[in-house]
Amino acid sequence: MKASILILGGTTEARQLAAHLAAEGFDCLLSLAGRTKTPAAQPVPVRVGGFGGAEGLADFLRTSGFRLMVDATHPYAARISANAAQAAALSGVPVVAMRRPGWVPQMGDNWQSVDSVTAAVAALGPAPRRVFVALGRNELLPFERAPHHHYLIRSVDPVEPPLAVPQADYFTARGPFVEADERTLLEAQRVEVIVCKNSGGDAAYGKIAAARTLGLPVVMIERPALPDVPAGENVEAVVARVRQVLG
Ligand code: NAP
């Protein structure tokens, strides 16, 4: 078994990366925050829960003898990425990040960029609209400030308790979501505007492509700043970096 790697996960790519590295004979442990009640099955051993900040993560790396950490968390999970960079400096265990590029607007896209969920809610405006919300269930509270809209809310786990708004429909689903299905959903639900993050990648792009086809506006919550560490854009690039670092 080759050197041991801690993978900070919670994304489809982290799961794929773990499978690739394990297939190459690397000994991997995948770490999840524990937000999802029924997490997807993983191809390598898993640990769940926070480390207690950058210092806690640095201790974990040192005491468990890891030789490398891969930050394959979601592009909006800014705190754990900052902690990973700091923990690498504290522990001397190098970090490599997976930095999935963001989507870029194409001809026919109608995006309004905002920097937070609160700003996204404000951008919906005073007139009632039918809004498709594709955000995490822990990010929805700001929508209570705009109870005049109708919300269609998709999340991995149920939204409990529901929002204090008079018109909201909820459903659970886990990606990937393809364009044809997203288009059917948006049409059937008479959605007028989408609120989402610029997640990048293919798994969540279906709604963006469907919005373009249907001429729907998208309120796009832009990405947070992330630390500048050695990175690859996809699984293959990160595997190459891992091989470079660990030989
Ligand atoms: P965050 O704000 O950056 O992290 C908050 C805290 O959660 C961290 O300080 C850390 O606690 C713990 N944590 C986060 N990721 C962890 C991991 N992989 N393993 C162990 N502890 C972790 O992150 P978030 O936005 O709440 O996201 C949580 C997880 O969900 C991430 O792993 C991310 O990949 C996944 N995810 C997030 C989004 C999103 O839009 N934010 C979307 C899809 C998936 P300690 O400081 O105690 O170590």
Write a concise keyword list for the protein shown above.
247 residues; alpha/beta; Rossmann fold; six-stranded parallel beta sheet; 7 helices; elongated; binds NADP nicotinamide-adenine-dinucleotide phosphate
3D structure, described in words:
By secondary structure, this protein is of the alpha/beta class. It is 31% helix and 23% strand. The chain has 7 helices and 12 strands. The strands form 2 sheets. A 6-stranded parallel beta sheet has the order 3-2-1-4-5-12, sandwiched between helices. Helix 1 (12-23) crosses helix 7, helix 2 (53-64) packs across helix 3 (78-91) and helix 5 crosses helix 6 (206-214). The protein is elongated. The two termini are 13 Å apart. The mean pLDDT is 96. Bound molecules: NADP nicotinamide-adenine-dinucleotide phosphate.
Can I get a quick summary?
It is built from seven helices and twelve strands. The chain is α/β, with parallel strands linked by helices and 247 residues long. α2 crosses α3.
What gap, in angstroms, lies between the N and C termini? 13 Å
The dominant shape is elongated
CATH superfamily placement of the largest domain: NAD(P)-binding Rossmann-like Domain
Secondary structure: number of strands: 12
Structural class: alpha/beta
Helical region count? 7
pLDDT < 50 runs, ≥5 residues: none
Bound molecules: NADP nicotinamide-adenine-dinucleotide phosphate
What's the CATH first level of the largest domain?
Alpha Beta
Strand content: 15-25%
CATH topology name of the largest domain, in short, is Rossmann fold
| Strand order in space, largest sheet | 3-2-1-4-5-12
Mean pLDDT: 96
